[in-house]
Design brief:
Helix content is 45%, strand content 14%. The protein has 306 residues and is α/β, with parallel strands linked by helices. Bound molecules: NADP nicotinamide-adenine-dinucleotide phosphate. The site of NADP nicotinamide-adenine-dinucleotide phosphate has 26 residues, from helix 12.
């Protein structure tokens, strides 16, 4: 039986480890502060943001949710970020993506003070990751490394294949695995014979946003499979095909009108992997835990209480 890498369990472990650090900061000076900027109304982003704000409250952190209108200009949003950069009580700033088309997202991300960039997306922090220097790390890949380590899955010397080269998941995940001494291959939409490359992986990270694309023939028997994909299926025939008419999934679809699936065929993972992350309940919960960890670290560093 494969090991199911339970992201909820590891998230809770990480949160419990953060509590005494947050209490120490609050007792010595003040609680860590996180500012979340959510522009306009975007259903998925609102859910993510609410979860982030709720988690920080539950942990005893201070959080501020700013919700400027959808019509905001780049300059107006820059002014908001600059005010947050200057605030002493804010250690972490998160600007929820995607931003509306009239806003220059790159300029906004560049304007966040690197030491408050708890998403780890600022080019300065990406450079620190490349160079192996301490700095906030991108949360989703950092969560993947935590998951592997806490389940005692060896990384050093193993073949890791990362499918996807985005700035927020694929690239930083590949760099982090390399720093953990894996031999890393990065794949993308132009990779020839993706299945053959994936079959070499002892650790396969799928981060494409392509529902259940990774099929059984992509998997080496016993591989560890990290499924980052979060794809919403809203067609009954897709749910029936991918989940082989699973009564639970069909019922969930009938209730909600959609169900989530990762980038890996769930049946293939269960049949062939040695360990794998379920969707939902695998990588997703860790992203928020690592955001909290980055904010606590930023506060410790800014308050000189490391
Ligand atoms: P993205 O920016 O759209 O990047 C997708 C990457 O996958 C690109 O590099 C693309 O290649 C590659 N790709 C697309 N189709 C492919 C194919 N058929 N074969 C090989 N490579 C292919 O996506 P992202 O932001 O990294 O997110 C990826 C997935 O992870 C999404 O489902 C997203 O919702 C999910 N996600 C989950 C979490 C979490 O917390 N669980 C966090 C972030 C993202 P090219 O570069 O050649 O275009």
């Amino acid at each position: 039986m494969p090991t199911i890498l339970d992201g909820v369990h590891i998230r809770d472990q990480i949160k419990e480890e953060l509590r005494p650090r947050i209490a120490r900061l609050a007792a010595a000076r003040r609680p860590p502060g996180l500012a979340v900027v959510l522009v306009g109304s975007h259903a998925a982003s609102e859910i993510y943001v609410r979860t982030k704000v709720k988690t920080s409250h539950d942990l005893g952190m201070y959080s501020d949710l700013l919700s400027p209108p959808e019509t905001i200009t780049t300059d107006e949003l820059l002014a908001i970020v600059n005010r947050l950069n200057a605030r002493d009580d804010i250690d972490g700033i998160l600007v929820q993506l995607p931003l509306p088309p009239q806003v220059d997202s790159k300029r906004i991300l560049l304007s966040i003070a690197p030491e408050k960039d708890v998403d780890g997306f600022h080019p300065y922090n990406v450079g620190c990751l490349v160079a192996g220097l301490p700095a906030p790390r991108a949360c989703t890949p950092a969560g993947i490394i935590q998951l592997l380590k806490r389940y005692d899955i060896a990384i050093a010397g193993r073949r890791a294949v990362v499918v996807g080269r985005s700035d927020i998941v694929g690239k930083p995940a590949a760099l982090m695995l390399m720093h953990e001494h894996a031999t890393v291959t990065i794949c993308h939409s132009k990779t020839v014979d993706l299945a053959a490359v994936c079959r070499e992986a002892d650790i396969l990270v799928a981060a494409m946003g392509r529902p259940a694309l990774v099929a059984e023939e992509y998997l080496k028997p016993g591989a560890t499979v990290i499924d980052v994909g979060m794809n919403s299926l809203d067609r009954r025939e897709d749910v029936a095909r991918i989940f082989r008419n699973s009564a639970d999934k069909v019922a969930a679809f009938e209730r909600r009108g959609s169900v989530l699936v990762g980038d890996v065929d769930p049946h293939a993972m269960a049949a062939k992997a040695g360990a794998y992350t379920p969707v939902p309940g695998g990588v997703g919960p860790l992203t928020i835990a690592m955001l909290m960890a980055n904010t606590v670290e930023a506060a410790e560093s800014r308050l000189g209480l490391c």
